[in-house]
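step 3/5: co-fold with zinc ion
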Amino acid sequence: MPIWTRDDEYEKFEVHGHPTNMVVDLGKRLCTCQFWIMPCVHACAALTRVNKKPEDFCHKWLTMDAYRDTYAHYINPFFGQSLWEESEQNRP
Ligand SMILES: [Zn+2]
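step 4/5: write tokens
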């Protein structure tokens, strides 16, 4: 059960639960339970209270743009070792 702290931005909540209560700040994307990569259950409760979607509060690492950036590059194909040229340099 999220309890609004009555801050001007409507972003700070005390979320009552078990085993203890947590403090959620939607503006700073903080919850006392964890580092915020995606909203925890406490943040989701607060977001429901303010009619906002949890997916809009996920870290940018979890976006499709980040996924596409990660896999935007490819590995060039390379022929087999038997086709390599002999080097005149010392072997490593
Ligand atoms: Zn939490």
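step 5/5: annotate
Residues 41-49 form the longest helix (9 residues).
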